[in-house]
Amino acid sequence: MTTSHALRLPSGPVDLSTLPTDATPGFDGDKEEGEQALLEMGAELAELQERLFAERTTGSSRNVLLVLQGMDTSGKGGVLRHTVGLVDPQGVRITSFKAPTEEEKRHDFLWRIRAALPGPGYIGVFDRSHYEDVLVVRVHGLAEPAEIERRYDAINAFEAELVESGSTLVKCMLHISAAEQKERLLARLDDPTKYWKFNPRDVDERAQWPAYRTAYETALERTSTAAAPWHVIPSDKKWFRNLAVGGLLLEALRGLDLRWPEADFDVAEQQRRLADEAPVG
Amino acid sequence: MTTSHALRLPSGPVDLSTLPTDATPGFDGDKEEGEQALLEMGAELAELQERLFAERTTGSSRNVLLVLQGMDTSGKGGVLRHTVGLVDPQGVRITSFKAPTEEEKRHDFLWRIRAALPGPGYIGVFDRSHYEDVLVVRVHGLAEPAEIERRYDAINAFEAELVESGSTLVKCMLHISAAEQKERLLARLDDPTKYWKFNPRDVDERAQWPAYRTAYETALERTSTAAAPWHVIPSDKKWFRNLAVGGLLLEALRGLDLRWPEADFDVAEQQRRLADEAPVG
After folding, report:
1. Given B186, B196, B265, which is nearest A200 (Cβ)?
2. Around A59, how many Cα atoms within 13 Å sit in the side-chain half-sphere?
């Protein structure tokens, strides 16, 4: 199945126009097979997530942070529903980052991000993230160029610190074509159950597509590190996008070599206590 | 399927020994049929949850708060996984309340509860809750009797305020027998993948079973209000417990008469804008 090898961004300059939006690297099957493959991944994903959750009882600080970035309609919500939805919601912490509040604006851009980091044992998911602070902020000139320049390094230092303290980062850019976005916006306009997802500003933003592409290219190039590499997920096919992120999450969890915690008590003694107890109830 | 009618706590004095732990009120089928019925509920639960999530974009403040209480091993985690796990995790906020921190202890008992309330459009789930402050606190004498007495009224005022401000509360006490708890603790000791869920203190706590029963009876009697009634879920059968909570959640969502939001823009105009736009990308 899809491995990080096929999706990991190579180092060096990034040209998104050369990276496919509709391919299925690492997977030979069709949509039906892809959906089936994702469901089959569910049991292992769920077990490894539970082992991670269990591990926190031993004092381990390890966790996983899935960062989802992409243009409007690229499918961050779909990944949450179909991929993240495969594991026990008890062990997941999802944060959707919107435009910063007035209070958030008074702090460094990483302030609200730190507050949303997953605790030990959790899979944290960022639906948008600190990357918005070098993407929409850059496209709309919401910060000075020198400040944006500073942020790439600040992000790398921040993510290195997270990895050092026990986080495994899985950074995914959901890559769609402008034509696919147009189809998806039109589909929302064709379906009254999807009107609520549509905002006329989404159409305005399409005029900024080249500026976003440039901003993404710079961000990907500057912040894809050995400790926290970027993956660019061809996302015109929704089923492949869900499967690919699932594969990356699974690979990250497998890489942690998670074991069920040993008992920190005498099992036989506790069995005896229960067997010998006075009547209860 | 299971209706709140069959599970809702009647008003008046509560005697938990008369309420079944292993019955399946409102459902005639067996385990296999019960598990199937829960899965079949999934599509409607997921759609209504999405409608609730969509509604928040209209400025509505409505949300749902599922409160799960029960003795150790009663299955709060199982409900989270099997029932809450049926809906999009994006629209769910789960909070597991542990023993209060030093900071939390310096505040009123409802302080940390308020901080965890679901926002508009969300299904909040409390795995344990403010009820611990009249349960474990009472059993272990962690507060003065007068303070505990005050808390029943404080809880009713708090919950009335929540309902007034747009919350629908679904309060479930997962009711198991002492014998069933013993089986479940022994099962954990028989399975190395479950050692992490076991704590020798759980065995000590069994000696307090009658005190917990009394504390639950008082809490249920004093805080089952018309605005926020309690439901006592027979929970010796895990499949019925999951199904019953699902049924209550479904009934709560149905009761909100949720509609997809109308478009707050001119649909045809936006279609034209996309059709007529200059080439993008």
Report:
1. B265
2. 2
Please tell me the distance from the alpha carbon of residue B220 to that of residue B213, in angstroms, as a whole number.
10
Q: How many CB atoms lie within 10 A of CB B29?
A: 15
**What does the alpha-carbon distance between residue B87 and residue B107 come to, in Å, rounded to a whole number?**
34
ipTM over 0.85: yes
What is the spatial distance between Cα B272 and Cα A200, in angstroms, rounded to a whole number? 12
Residue B228 C-alpha, separation from nearest chain A C-alpha, in angstroms? 24
- Tell me, what amino acid is at A79? V
Of A197, A260, A278, the CB nearest to B193: A260
Q: Which of residues 175-194 of B touch A (CB under 8 A)?
A: 177-179, 182, 185-186, 189, 192-193
Q: Which two tokens stand for residue B42?
A: 């999934």
Q: Is B274 on the interface with A (CB under 8 A)?
A: yes
H/E stretch holding B167 reads: strand B167-175
- Residue B160: what residue type? A
Chain A residue with Cα closest to B54: A196
Which two structure tokens, joined as six digits, stand for A69? Answer: 């970035």
pLDDT digits (tens, 9 = 90+) for A55-100: 999 999 999 999 999 999 999 999 999 999 999 999 999 999 999 9
List the one residue out of A110, A98, A245, A60 whose CA is nearest residue A170: A245
Distance from CA of B106 to the nearest CA of A (A): 22
pLDDT digits (tens, 9 = 90+) for A5-37: 789 999 999 999 999 999 999 999 999 999 999
